[in-house]
Amino acid sequence: AFHSEHQAIKLKEQLLRKYPSSNVIEFPGQDSYWVRIRPQGDNREQAEFIASKLRPIEGEAFLTRLD
Fold it and tell me: Under a CB-based contact definition with an 8 Å cutoff, are residues 21 and 33 in contact?
């Protein structure tokens, strides 16, 4: 999560360029802005790889299940 909508959108754009086959969304939370990336085919290995490479300005990357 980010406090700044601008930072969330910036990360979203970077992820879309780097992982064009993934679904990347930015959305508002209660007091923050979130970015979610969903690799094509819900590939867990790809999700773990992406999470290990991310170094957000605020917070950290983590995996969530969508089921």
Answer: no
